[in-house]
Design goal:
Length: 113
């Protein structure tokens, strides 16, 4: 099922929705390269007390059923992490395609955040 970027006008609603599942990641991703590839992040977290340390760039997407998926770039580590609102992710191929040409490692099972 295709995923679509979430409109910036929905920022308050989107940032309140839980992304409880971590599905995989691409490693060795540079901030400038991912921004050139995906565009301007939907949200940038700069408070290192709320992150894994350092900035995080976030891009949010939704599928036709309303399932939320996201790409989070943990800037200091170069990890582009795939999150979702559902343990069973219907849009995984499309989400992985968003990170092409980087190699995406999909975990054997999703991890609860």
């Amino acid at each position: 099922m295709p995923v679509h970027p979430v409109a910036k006008g929905a920022a308050e609603e989107v940032l309140k929705r839980p992304l409880l599942w971590l599905h995989g990641w691409a490693r060795g991703v540079e901030r400038d390269a991912l921004r050139a590839h995906l565009g301007t992040p939907f949200y940038v977290e700069t408070d290192s007390h709320r992150t894994f340390g350092g900035d995080e760039d976030w891009w949010f997407y939704e599928d036709d059923t309303g399932e939320m998926v996201a790409v989070c770039l943990r800037v200091p580590y170069g990890d582009a992490v795939l999150y979702s609102s559902s343990e069973l992710l219907n849009g995984m191929p499309e989400l992985v395609a968003l990170l092409s040409p980087w190699t995406v490692e999909i975990f054997e099972k999703p991890y609860a955040r």
